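Note to self: keep these together.
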Amino acid sequence: MKWVRLIMMICVCSSSYSATRYVALGGGHDAVGGYTNWTGAATSIIDAVNAAQPGETILVSNGLYKLTNQITLGANSMRSWNNGVTDRAGTIIDGDFYDSKPVTNRCVEITGASARLDGFTISNGCVRSAGGAGILVAAAADYVIITNCFITQNTTTITTTSSGAGVRMNGVGGILTHCLVVSNSAPMSSSAAAGGAYLFGTDNTMEFCDVGYNQAQTAAGVAVNAGNRVSNCRIYGNSAGSWGGGFYLNAPDAVLEGCVVSNNSAGGTGGGAAYLRRGALRNCILVDNRTPANYGGGLYVNDPVAELTIESCLFVNNVASNASAAYGGGLAIRHVGAGTGNVQLLNSTFTGNWGRNGNGGGIWMEVSAANADKVAIKNTIAAGNKVGAFDRDIDAVGTIGDAAATNGFVFCCSPTFDYFPPGQGSLRTDPLFVSSTDYRLQSVSPCVNAGTNQSWMAESLDLDGHSRIDRYSGRVDIGCYEYFLKGTLFGIH
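Structure:
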């Protein structure tokens, strides 16, 4: 009986054995042995990946791996390896694309659920249809993790909105984390979108990434579809031919939060940093973005079709420079069409923004009578913004606000705007920032404890990470920063 049990244990252990496959440019390429040690390592990543069974790991030694076809990664973990640690800079997967090349291929397609890609430079991939020239996560590949990768110089030639040259995530629940997505491109024509990254599936997260110097006709940096989230990223130096230099939100539950969006540009329609129609922008800094077009050096909101929230954000030094008419150096909102969505601008600060010629150095809005009750600006500061050489923080065209005083300008602050409705808590005064470069509030600021409390504030933080509601006064401040009393609190018993 003991022998039977021992045989059964040996059989169970053998059936659950999981091999590791090895890749090295100088390996012995032992196909018969299955590349299961460094001595017999595959010299081709594709061969090792094809030999791997689901759940197995592929270790890739540092080196330059030029492809003749894409790597198709199933339900496996693949990581770079240099003396026991990952080596992103030294382990390069190169799609070997050049301008006159007749045949193109992407670098990596991930088709297996729970796959993991860790520690590679992914470059020179190209596709002429669909997207994801660098990395494509297939629709069936859920809960994928891509981490510690440098995704660069990948190109897509498709001219539709279905793009994402650097990386495109079509699955559910994936994570793109601690990656650099830099200098990827989609065509600067038609409506090609997302030179950097396209979160197209649902419940995907992009976090702690740099997205820089990508280009596309629209949404040059990142496009975010329904139910996806971008958080704690730096989005900079991206360039769109038409609109949305940094990013684009146009889907319910699409969220961008905790990001710094800087030095992006957009021609055509506008939106140097971003173009929004629905979703949420929270706790972000939009700085030094620009458009030579008409609308929104920082942000352009156009006829939203669903709920759109901008919360606890700082807009500073954004520029709309159209010579004939530039509207909204910081933010331009147009709600004049058939869009039925509500726009909420909450607890944000606009300063140092500039429009060359037009209206609203900080904020410009055009709202039709039919949409008058769909735009709310609450607890927001606009100060130190200019149109040309003149101080001009806010301009509004049309009817904004409702009789119940729940929408329109409520508990806002600007030293130059003459049309705050009476009795709704707004202040026509200097907010008294700490300095010309520090937009926190002085202790004597009229904006301290001067806002109106909202239910969402109970679980929310300001741009510095402090609680929105002062525990002592029980009242919120106006602007993106709460005044935070420094010092030591002593209790006497």
